[in-house]
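Reopening this ticket.

The earlier resolution said the output was attached, but the attachment link was broken on my side. Pasting everything inline this time so it's all in one place.
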Amino acid sequence: MPGEVFSTAGLKLELEEKPEETIVYCSGRIVAESAEWFQNEIRDRIIPLSRGRGVAVTSRIVLDLSKVSFIDSTGLGSLLTVWTAAQRRSCDMEIINPGARVEQLLSVTKLDQVFTKMKNLFGGNHSK
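Inline output:
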């Protein structure tokens, strides 16, 4: 069940934290008006700053895009930025459940080859 909720102009993020994994349910539009906020929230709140000594930290972030209706070029850049930040901190980031429009955009831009994109992880346990 999702926990913390953060929102800004046209975009809402709901977090579901599990041991060593955080699922981020994104709702709305990842566009120029929300892209910087999106990047900062993911980088500063979710991606671990360090690997804890004996403390469970997020080692995997799952972005559920099932409720994202639109992503513009700035939003694509922010997705790539947070993916890169996660990689630098030895944290896996996956994109799941993109809608048809978002999936097509990821495919056309070849970003689907960059992100580990999965339709349904663990038999559907990530759907809301």
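Reporter confirms the inline version is readable. The chain has three helices and six strands. The radius of gyration is 14 Å.
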